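user: can you give me the structure for this one chain? tokens are fine.
assistant: on it. calling the predictor now.
[tool input]
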Amino acid sequence: MTSSNPGDGETRQDDPPVSVGGRRKQRVSMADVARLAGVSSQTVSRVANGHPSVVGATRDQVLAAMRTLGYRPNSAARALRYGEFRTIGVILFSLSSTGNSRTLEAIAAHAAAEGYAITLIPVAARTQDHVMGAFTRMGELAVDAVIVIMEAHLLDSVSFTLPPGVHVVMVDSDAGDRYRVVDTDQADGARQAVEHLLDLGHRTVWHVAGPAESFAGERRAAAWRKALEDAGRAVPPVRRGDWSAESGYRIGLELAEEPACTAVFAANDQMALGLLHAFGEKGRRVPADVSVVGFDDVPGTAAWFVPPLTTVHQDFAEVGRRCVQGVLDQIRGAHHSTPGTTLVPTRLVVRQSTAPPPADRA
């Protein structure tokens, strides 16, 4: 039996027959769609591949013909012809954190706008075996590039080889000497938070840090310490949470007993929320008695805390856009996969959770 040329992503005509409109017939080809739509096979190919040159009524006409005939482009054949699957893999640990979920949302949106699909490759546990398993699985999937949302130090002790031709961008990592990295400017965001509180007149700033294994948490903590040292201020003992509101609440109960604590910088908004609850329970008014600054500016959330939270805004949409652009530049040959870090700026959003310290403690 003969088969049509699969080069442009059309289905082979010697596939098993299917039922269309109550009649059994061979699987439809690109030529069938072209005849029904009254266009060329090349135009159908461009629509099937998401090419931006086909717009308006012509595109709608082709899509309607595809639906009528039940035409499904053959992605494997398209990959053989064009050398790409138009799919980006994303490896990450968890969607529970604000940063991961918002970044993944942005990656998916920008990838779709470029005509690419997303394949999510979760890592079940933070162990070498599970990390290695994720990369092994990635090698078995049809992806053109990978965006890794993972602490880079976990890769240091894991021996893995990326599949040939797969391009990589890492997120929120200090591995710019080995990979292409896109990151929020963690250090500058923390500096802005500390300087804001010092400018209000607070003698020093206490810090609720993220987990020790977190690159973002450690980068924010280091910047907090440096900002205090540069200003010649005392550096209080760091209190470490786990990103949860519960851990912020627990630490807040302790800090509420510290009379000298008039300003706290929390490494994320959830821990800041816990602080607000703890201070409220202990009769420490925010911001009259103690000021609180968070980090993230969770959309639709931070502004509705009581009081509304002063926090460092992270542009997760821009992080996602730059990640996608980074892998597409590599796929399209615009740039080689050379190491380096791209920082997305942060900005302080001042709301009602910060104020000058009480007069008797200023």
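assistant: here you go. Confidence is low (pLDDT under 50) at residues 1-24. The chain has three domains: 6-81, 85-183+316-344, 186-315+348-361.
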